[in-house]
Amino acid sequence: MNRQTILVVEDEPNIAEVIGLYLRRADYDVVTLHDGEAALAWLAANKPDLVVLDLMLPRVDGLEITRWLRSRGNIPIIMLTSRRQETDRILGLEMGADDYVVKPFSPRELVSRVRAVLRRVAAPGEDVVPGPALTCGDLTIDPATRLVTVAGREVTLTAREFDLLWWLASHPRQVFTRDQLLDHVWGLAEYIDPSTVTVHIRRLREKLEEDASNPRYIRTVWGVGYKFEP
Question: Where are the domains of the chain?
Fold first, then answer.
């Protein structure tokens, strides 16, 4: 079985070395780069299984690399940064990062997050059981093909966005807190900021709803969480 390749883009050599050491011990192949320009050049010719990406990089920053990656596909991204502000975390997630780790961090925790994200990509949504498609109004969700359409138009979702949508749609009108959704969809609730759920809900609404500010399908239950209204 081929080992999975992790690209680590981190401008601090000591941190990059530690990350690489722990990931190799976890049986991953690791490529380490120290600036954004070199990362873009490498990514143009290679496709890793996951990218661990520092936000503050020389030449080209992590947000620009995230934007570039998301315009070309859904390679999983774990953003790594010393910036603690919630607005920075939300911005990274809205750009398409799958997770966000704040320095200083535990290398073992980072490895756990890498495993969790890759597990979701390899076998997305253990609760997504192939079967008949769900149709609600002009929205159709097919778990067998992981295809989502709105009024016949195909909607491109990341693996995590699909898992979140399927979980909610499979439990119509049931209200879930953000922590419950982290448990069911992400699987590592103790490591992940609950704002991750908020950002993914927002992205789903922007892709699925005619008016994201007045959603038809994914409703907010104020003070509690979210539900899917069929």
Answer: 5-122, 134-228
CA 78 to chain centre: 8
Task: Tell me if 53 sits within 8 A of 80, measured CB to CB.
Answer: yes
Q: What CATH number belongs to 5-122? A: 3.40.50.2300
What is the rounded distance in angstroms from the CA atom of residue 176 to the CA atom of residue 168? 8
Q: Cα–Cα distance between 123 and 112 in angstroms, integer?
A: 16
CATH of domain 134-228: 1.10.10.10
Locus of tokens 């966005």: 161
Amino acid identity at 51: V
DSSP E strand stretches across the chain: 5-9, 29-33, 50-54, 77-81, 99-102, 134-136, 139-142, 147-150, 153-155, 218-221, 225-228
For residue 48, give the nearest of 81, 25, 17, 74 by alpha carbon: 74
Per-residue CA distances from 135 to 10, 147, 169 (Å)? 44, 12, 10
pLDDT tens for the chain, 230 residues: list them: 578 999 999 999 999 999 999 999 999 999 999 999 999 999 999 999 999 999 888 889 888 999 899 888 778 899 887 766 666 667 777 777 888 888 888 899 899 889 888 877 765 545 555 568 889 889 999 988 888 999 889 998 877 888 899 999 999 999 999 988 988 887 655 556 677 888 889 989 999 998 988 999 999 999 999 999 98
